[in-house]
Design a protein that fits this description.
The protein is an alpha/beta fold and 208 residues long. The protein is 58% helix and 11% strand. It folds into 2 domains: 5-81, Orthogonal Bundle (Methyltransferase, Methionine Synthase (B12-binding Domains), Chain A, domain 1), CATH 1.10.1240; 89-207, Rossmann fold. The chain has a 5-stranded parallel sheet, sandwiched between helices. Strand 1 (89-94), helix 5 and strand 2 (117-120) form a beta-alpha-beta unit. The structure holds CO-5-methoxybenzimidazolylcobamide.
């Protein structure tokens, strides 16, 4: 097992140049790409936990995610060549009527950090579009975000549309006005209060 602690620390610190350098060095030293990806995913897991615990904030998480993005860009062609693809795909989006996307984007970054392929439908997404995209991309998870009390009911529409389809797709929700009680009420499979928790929840829903 190679020592990839330098790469992990570079990602956690959001040091893009160092993350890229460590990735190139590891590849040149013949470290398997999956092992490098695992080190990056673990680094983002640490970031997620620090964010959940209130030890770091949105800017730190964003710069860590950007460092990971640049480092994975180097790794991606090597992973593709080796036939390694993320095992699962998640479709995410902000529900119809709602244009807030900062939190949703963070959730997307953390899911990618957890080695989940993310199809981001953007904002103001109608229920049917989530179902279509889940079918098209064979996604086993849909992540819904809402920041307005007035758009929360549109989450229920997505859950109902998924239940009416024959898809084996779980639905998780989040966003400031949502709660675990609301998730249970609308029949969603889970709620996460923040992006770090969203990655943990996604992994456990996809494992189930
Ligand atoms: Co809006 N806005 N806004 N706004 N805006 C709020 C949400 C509001 C609380 C402000 C206020 O009044 N105090 C209020 C909502 C009130 C309510 O419904 N209870 C509000 C309002 C009223 C409005 C407008 C109606 C204002 C108007 O036009 N009169 C309008 C609505 C437009 C629309 O959507 N149709 C509007 C517009 C906007 C801007 C466009 C100006 C801008 C959005 C820009 C953008 O997103 N690109 C904006 C902003 C920035 C905010 C505030 C200030 C910040 C939201 C944010 O990005 N937070 C917000 C007030 C506030 O929250 N303090 C406010 C940072 C972000 C990292 O946190 O999104 O909570 P958050 O995401 C977290 C978690 O919630 C969770 O993880 C994230 C990271 O930890 N999470 C998930 C989120 N999605 C998840 C999904 C998951 C799991 C976890 O699983 C899938």
């Amino acid at each position: 097992m190679a020592d990839l602690s330098g790469l992990s620390l570079a990602i956690q610190a959001g040091d893009r140049a160092s993350a890229v350098r460590h990735t190139n060095e590891a590849l040149a030293a013949g470290v398997p790409p999956q092992e490098i990806l695992n080190a990056m995913t673990e680094a983002m897991g640490i970031i997620g936990r620090l964010f959940q615990d209130g030890d770091i904030f949105v800017p730190e998480m964003l710069i860590a995610a950007r460092a990971m993005k640049e480092a994975t860009a180097i790794l991606e062609p090597v992973l593709v060549e080796a036939g390694i693809r993320p095992e699962h795909t998640a479709v995410i989006g902000t529900v119809e009527g709602d244009l807030h996307d900062i939190g949703k984007n963070l959730v997307g970054m953390m899911l990618k950090g957890a080695a989940i392929e993310v199809v981001d439908l953007g904002v103001n997404v109608p229920a049917d579009r989530f179902v279509e995209a889940a079918r098209e991309h064979n996604a086993r998870l849909i992540g819904l975000s809402a920041l307005l009390t007035t758009t929360m009911p549109n989450m229920r529409k997505v859950v109902e549309a998924i239940k009416a389809s024959n898809l084996n797709t779980k639905v998780m929700i989040g966003g400031a006005p949502t709660t675990p009680e609301f998730a249970a009420q609308i029949g969603a499979d889970g709620f996460a209060p923040d992006a770090g928790a969203a990655a943990d929840l996604a992994k456990s829903l996809l494992a189930g």
